[in-house]
Recover the amino acids of this structure.
DNA sequence: ACTGGTGGTTGCATAGTACAACTCGATGCG
DNA sequence: CGCATCGAGTTGTACTATGCAACCACCAGT
């Protein structure tokens, strides 16, 4: 196996390991906001409000899954649904004040956890790593960070 | 926010995005081997056989979860259980031939999918990215952030 | 008005998970 | 030795996330 294969193999293995860990403990750290709920709220904040269908498409989730997640978030008072006056099929979703607050809290906690692992990393490495992740995840080198 | 914060923020977001995507698509890609099953088989291969308790500890899973996963893998003919002659409480788990074969197949497919996203990456970037991931995941045994 | 397409909800099934209670065997202590 | 304790694993129960399919409501084009 050449060096390229070795690097690909390592990347595959490490990404797998990460995904498994994230999944295994997704609910433990932020009992009030699951990983999926967190990313949905994050997307609402970034996008400034969107439709359930947009969330489903963006996250490759079934619309029924999004529907239920959104219902839960609404029950929890973190998002609001507004009827689109232009199209009565559509519900435009947006964060409530409480939603914004919780999202900010969880973001801070998550970022702290990430930063924890990144202590001692030189600034240059942080930036390169961030760049690689963006490039890997998106093909989206163009998209703004956290686009997703 | 300074550049360091921005990089940390991006890393956090991208790792989260990746975890979510992996989770969403884990089952679709390899219907016969879920992400968790895959990692368990992988660990058995690396370790050359271990106990269910070791798997649980390594992956921060409840022993009941591992028990059921292992049962499923055994039913599928991918792992074997052997009584430890030293301690009759213990079952040493190991891959069967079929388990090895499936694991190899899925590894190839997963690696191909990863390589797909890494086409056009210069060798130097591949190696650096792999190194960053190892470093990020590695110190993490204690408090994996995606893990939380 | 009919037809087809889109946004969303609900019923049903499944996977993965945790926690608690349990069994069985090992280990240690009086 | 006999009993208490510990460790490995299993099983019962419950919950969450998820997908698919069926369905309803609405929009738009013909």
């Amino acid at each position: 196996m050449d060096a390229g294969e070795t690097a690909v193999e390592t990347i595959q293995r490490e990404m797998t390991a990460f995904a498994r860990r994230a999944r295994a403990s997704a609910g433990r750290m932020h009992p009030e906001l699951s990983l999926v709920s967190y990313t949905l709220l994050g997307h609402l904040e970034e996008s400034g409000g969107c439709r359930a269908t947009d969330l489903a498409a963006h996250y490759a989730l079934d619309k029924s899954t999004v529907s239920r997640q959104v219902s839960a978030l609404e029950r929890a008072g973190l998002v609001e649904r507004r009827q689109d006056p232009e199209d009565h099929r559509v519900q435009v979703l947006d964060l409530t004040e409480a939603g914004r607050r919780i999202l900010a809290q969880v973001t801070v906690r998550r970022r702290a956890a990430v930063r924890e692992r990144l202590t001692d990393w030189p600034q240059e490495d942080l930036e390169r790593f961030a760049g690689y992740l963006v490039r890997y995840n998106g093909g989206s080198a163009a998209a703004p960070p956290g686009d997703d």
Summary: The CA atoms of residues 38 and 74 of chain A lie 13 Å apart. Chain A touches chain B through 61 residues (CB under 8 Å).
